[in-house]
Structures
1.
Amino acid sequence: MKGIFPLEKLERIQTPFYYYDAELLRQTLRTITQEVSKHEGFCVHYAVKANANPKVLKIIREAGLGVDCVSGGEIEASVKAGFPSQRIVYAGVGKSDWEINLGLDNDIFCFNVESIPELEVINQLAAAKGKVARVAFRLNPNVGAHTHANITTGLAENKFGIDMRDMLPVMEEASQMSNIKVVGLHFHIGSQILDMGDFEALCNRVNELQNELERHRIRVEHINVGGGLGVDYQHPNRVPIPDFKDFFDTYAKKLKLRDGQTLHFELGRAVVAQCGTLITRTLYIKEGHVKKFCIVDAGFTDLIRPALYQAYHKIENLSSDEAPEAYDVVGPICESTDVFAKQIDLNKAHRGDLIAIRSAGAYGESMASQYNCRKLPVGYISEEL
Ligand SMILES: *Cc1c(COP(=O)(O)O)cnc(C)c1O
């Protein structure tokens, strides 16, 4: 064991691979369900796009969460993992017909609708099946989030959602459609948000919109505020579980639910990021004139976050206790962006050392690709090793 890792077991597996700590995932889920149970009408969905590994999904399903899907494939993965279809919500700016039909066939809880043309198609497809589709309108609340520009979604300039100024006309239009039932409003302002003030700003916006609806004597059953709670990438050991209490308390205090309304959340990163580690092996230490490179066998095909949005992941050498030295940790892919970290301290590294790239459970395995004809990384869960 080095720290939290069962080193002898990991040594036997072909690198690179993902290692998921089932115990930490369960603890995280227990924290979520405990905190949620303190608030009446709160309901948590897991955002499948963060990690769709079947073994991870199974543990999340056992904890009783619903799911938030953003594609037909994710609906299929969720149904296969045993999530009840009444607990599935489906969002996305570009739902294709087969995906909408799949949602209708499974009688999912709700389509989060992002435009009028989409609403019309859902109405037609539902009519063809003699069904009524439950929908929530995803409104763009024009609330900024203090996070990376590529993962903010709630600004007027982003492609997501319906302009909130169109809320009433859209509601009116939907009320004319025979195979549509409006059940809620949906929002999602971005990801890796650590400033509760951002969520407060969303609450204030939702309150304003609900007041406006009330003036027109409209009430929806459900409010869905999306996900976005961030994790501590700097300190995965010290802060393995995000502050769910603060998160849910913020909504309980600031968002004014009407009688009988339920409040839905769609958490992805905060559920799975810290339980996952990308384990990779050092291939070569290359001593340049300016820098020392630790070349590992994982690349951005396995974990794209650093290349895609300069994301930070804590990196550790699991095989060495020697004095730390500064390295650029890089992958084998033929792209200059295939860099996990620059000038970071690692215990002196040698060919064959196991390197742990931490906090990689969210948007890691699920974003893997086969560029360069590489193999997709396999995900292992601690209890199967
Ligand atoms: C990605 C996404 C989420 C989850 O975001 P996290 O930051 O991982 O919590 C929730 N809802 C929608 C609609 C999303 O697109």
2.
Amino acid sequence: MFRVMAGDGGEVTKALRAVVLKIKAATAARSPEVSEWCAVPRLVAVSKTKPKEMVIEAYLAGQRHFGENYVQELVAKAADPEILTRCPDIRWHMIGPMQSNKAKKVLSIPNLFLIETVHSAKLASLLDAIWAKAGHQHRLNIYVQVNTSEEAQKSGVAPGEVTQLTEHVINNCPNLNLLGLMTIGAYDYDLSLGPNPDFQRLLQCRDAVCAHHSLHHHQLELSMGMSADYEHAISVGSSNVRVGSVIFGSRSHEPQ
Ligand SMILES: *Cc1c(COP(=O)(O)O)cnc(C)c1O
């Protein structure tokens, strides 16, 4: 069974350090054209299905951003008294499907940093209204999720409709801060075939959104890349990688 040895050689600590080194190397190896507009990418440690002890170990090893994609699990971990006291500076990312009836719950968790999965104008307006009512001093960070692989079972707005949604967020949702775009993409893409087409599509969406709103590339983050392909994602310009299994071990079950 897993044992926690904070900061000194626990499995999670070791795996996390290896990932951080690979992110640094992949960042340093980027072409100047990519480096020019893309800062050092943020690592989101995806802790879904994993016990809070692993979150705490990763936090003590220096990790700050964590992602969950199941509402109940996110709420439970974010409000956990031990995580609250031992991880005061933790930053939570919601990376799973957002149902309207759970939105209020998610938006009320402590240390919420970012909703990565805004896929419709209706959801954006709902989040905007909930955030306004809660009376926060700062805007709520969001990514617009794009269904780059256009698979029916994947959530996200179609690539051709991204600017329509970002326009709605910018014009009609004053309590939301459009931080970037996110994609999951098709699983099991074989990188020996060339650059992942889902990431290329997200880059094109970024270009379209930036042109539409007169933004610079560095003003719109891109969330792409998971355990299997985060180094590749960084090489083509990811600014936010979501890495789970190579840090916390493979999952015996998927939430939902
Ligand atoms: C589970 C999950 C991840 C992490 O997947 P790994 O392959 O374990 O790194 C990243 N993003 C989303 C949206 C996920 O649901």
